[in-house]
């Protein structure tokens, strides 16, 4: 027996609808979030399956998320869970209703109907191991904090440009945040002594301290256009706050990097991933986290490349044919793979030769790098499938120019 379940989730409840294989609604309910709600859902499903509940019974669940304890409980129960992209659900709903009406109960019906008619077009949730899930948790938060540090730094630079532009020349690296926290306004900065500046640079482990100290002190004492004292004081207060936030982010990024290292090296695929050119612990952890470790998820290298978003897409109609990059992709995974490709140029002769051939074809740097990233994904897939480490000669044997006969 086939039973379809649509689950429209909210923060504190779930609207669910159970449907049979013909599209007939069997029951609807609103369930609370948590263990009591999942227990009631199991009871609803068991009541519909009745005596058919066994090895031949299949329960498909459509839900617009792939995370959280609720989804983990659905997986643990043996249901086939389809995490549906909200955009896909919206497009499916428009196929059957053009009025624009929308409700939670109607969304549950849409999700149940999607897994009834379009399951072959949807990707079932991967069965990643707890170790892979742990790597994903710490690797994602680590990257999120790095992105947040970049945003905070840009906000700080924008504020400094408004009232104290000399600091943009003097403090040219995040290591000098200590000085900016001590002297966030022109008057205080001008009073900084050589000893204070050099001590801060020494604690930041900077090189050529004497030269940098002279340059920073001169930049902070140059004449510049000022703002009224009360405005400068207000900006200085916000700068101190921004510096404190950045200092905390730096501490937590360092702490989480240690967690990424610990969880990643605990995973059985870590050595294979680290053997790939351009991948060290942090990038390797991100790649493993975003791909997951379900051995049945990617049947072929092409499947993995398509998921990665590195393979091109073709739009053809009549005599017109366009090959373009994929703009809908996992940003975290693409970022890690492009960084890997950039690093591989320095460590792998095969990768460098492959990249150079793409440039010789007329491709710009980014498209050529994307092609290299796509090739590296294929190599990683082969290594994981055969449980072997990367070998430079084997990896690029099909791309070596053969001598003319």
Automatic annotation (TrEMBL):
Pfam families: DEDD_Tnp_IS110, Transposase_20. It comes from the Bacteria. GO terms for molecular function: DNA binding; transposase activity. InterPro entries: Transp_IS110-like_N, Transpos_IS110, Transposase_20. Residues 5-165 form the Transposase IS110-like N-terminal domain. Residues 271-355 form the Transposase IS116/IS110/IS902 C-terminal domain. GO terms for biological process: DNA transposition. This is Mobile element protein.
